[in-house]
Specification:
Elements: H1 3-18, H2 22-31, H3 36-54, H4 66-84, H5 86-90, H6 98-109, H7 125-140, H8 142-147, H9 150-153, H10 158-164, H11 178-203, H12 207-218, H13 237-250, H14 254-263, H15 267-271, H16 273-295, H17 302-317, H18 334-344, H19 357-375, E1 384-385, E2 388-389, H20 392-418, H21 423-434, H22 453-467, H23 471-474, H24 479-482
Antiparallel strand pairs: 1-2
Helix pairs in contact: 1-3, 1-4, 2-3, 2-7, 4-6, 4-10, 6-7, 6-22, 7-12, 11-12, 11-13, 11-14, 13-17, 16-17, 16-18, 17-18, 20-21, 21-22
Length: 484
């Protein structure tokens, strides 16, 4: 393990992250709110911490191995969660404990969208902007963004990319060089954000709300500048329509966006089996939700039932977490079905959470293969994706991930119940945080403010596990990882 190399990278990345505190300072100046000094102090603390780490080892040049990449990713998210909490903790208007501040920071950076803050409509604009920006940075993955400047750091970045990117096939790259891959991801992400902000603004949002909600929409985060979330704009269905379109786009593998852009053809989307499965799942859930809402007279007009049913199906299914209604109060099985759709989540290589559509598809294919093997014990039946057989190692990795996911889910669920949460609240909170969704059911339907501190720390850990897809964190807890 290259300790000095890790220290050097962490220091430089903290210095880079400190620049993200400059836009909130500008917003504070524009709106003349009370948070200017808090953001400035947070900026100084972050940049000085980064310099203290970097300066003693600035001339250290040594290539690091894959295990070093895992350590950097995990440590940086922990450190980032801590320094990202500074503006929340310093704000006298929020008056948050250190636990709540870190919870809010990690929720933003992991694009979970679970919040402990109420009274959003009355908060200073700079704090509201900062929350949205945290999700935007977390959406693309702060490490992937940093990889774009790896030439400045003087080391290769593929180890970081493999540790950070979601999905079962982590060695795929959009371009031959990792630097170009990171840039491609960045340009696509930035373009989608700009298009989403423009669409929201044209649809009727204020410019401030349009920018803020474009951040959390493209990041599939779910933070809003209003307590009512997207329900604040209920009189403007065109805004909800814009959100639906861009949530779906953000849940797609960014490699497909890149291919479609490079070939100037949208047909590449529909050639991808994961994309077709993704649309099929969202469509099925949306139809069931809309029909049930109308059948149960939750909405007396069919167009309203369709709009809210489709919106909530897409929002929960992609793990965005926006709400137009308090969906956890909807009747019957519907809230639970929507919550279960978040377990599948979005596509691999997207900003979404959950287990990913490709893993769900592989689990189904593996299940069907085992049924066929019972009938034909000696048959050789490969699992294919897009007509190409997959290596057994990929299938084994998916099953390993699923087993680890279920085990961790059960452990976190039991611990939350031990803290005093009822079964439904504990189950939904675990699902919402591990899947990076945000809103849950019952006690955590609106926010997480009422939870005890131990529960918030457990759920903060669950957010990190979900954002880094479990193994990146669990590998650090393995004794074998630390053996020479």
């Amino acid at each position: 393990m290259q300790i000095f190399a890790i220290q050097r990278i962490l220091g430089l990345l903290l210095v880079v992250f400190s620049t993200s505190l400059l836009p909130p300072i500008l917003v504070s100046v524009i709106y003349s709110d009370t948070q200017l000094m808090h953001f400035f102090e947070a900026f100084l603390i972050t940049v000085l911490t980064g310099l203290v780490l970097w300066l003693p080892v600035r001339n250290y040049r040594k290539e690091f191995r894959l295990r070093d990449g895992f350590i950097i990713v995990a440590m940086f998210w922990i450190v980032l969660g801590l320094v990202g909490a500074l503006p929340f903790f310093m704000s006298q208007q929020l008056n948050l404990s250190i636990t709540d501040a870190i919870f809010e920071s990690l929720s933003g950076l992991t694009t979970t969208g679970a919040t402990v803050i109420t009274g959003l409509d009355d908060l200073p604009k700079s704090l509201l902007y900062y929350r949205q920006q945290l999700q935007w940075l977390g959406g693309i993955g702060i490490i992937v963004i940093a990889v774009a400047i790896m030439p400045m750091l003087g080391i290769g970045g593929m180890q970081l990319y493999r540790a950070e990117t979601p999905g079962p096939m982590k060695d795929s790259k959009l371009t031959p060089r990792i630097k170009e891959t990171a840039k491609a991801l960045w340009y696509i992400y930035l373009s989608l954000t700009a298009a989403c902000a423009l669409a929201y603004w044209v649809a009727g949002m204020s410019l401030f709300d349009a920018i803020g909600h474009s951040f959390s929409t493209i990041a599939i985060g779910g933070f809003s500048t209003h307590d009512a979330s997207m329900g604040y704009f209920n009189d403007k269905p065109q805004i909800e329509a814009v959100a639906i379109v861009f949530m779906i786009l953000s849940g797609v593998n960014f490699a497909l966006h890149f291919t479609a852009w490079r070939t100037r053809s949208a047909f590449n989307y529909f050639r991808d089996v994961e994309f077709r499965t993704y649309l099929g799942i969202l469509t099925t859930v949306a139809i069931i939700s809309s029909a049930y809402l109308y059948y149960m007279d939750v909405f007396i007009y069919p167009e309203r039932a369709i709009l809210h049913g489709v919106f909530q199906a897409v929002s929960i299914g992609t793990t965005t977490g926006f709400t137009t209604q308090e969906y956890h109060t909807w009747p019957g099985f519907l809230p639970v079905m929507l919550l279960f759709s978040s377990f599948i989540g979005a596509c691999a290589g997207s900003t979404g959470g959950g287990m990913k559509v490709i893993r769900f598809l592989l689990l189904l294919k593996q299940g069907f293969r085992e049924v066929k093997r019972v009938i034909h014990p000696n048959a050789v039946i490969p699992i294919k994706i897009g007509g190409s057989p997959l290596p057994d190692r990929v299938v084994d990795a998916v099953w390993g991930f699923f087993a680890a996911y279920v085990a961790i889910f059960v452990i976190i669920l039991l611990i939350l119940m031990l803290t005093g949460l009822d079964q439904i609240s504990a189950f939904s909170a675990t699902a919402a945080c591990l899947n990076n969704l945000g809103p849950g059911l019952n006690e955590v339907g609106l926010n997480y403010a009422s939870l005890e501190d131990p529960a918030k720390w457990i759920l903060s850990f669950a957010m990190m596990l979900g954002r880094l897809e479990i193994f990146t964190v669990l590998v650090l807890l393995s004794p074998a990882f630390w053996r020479r």
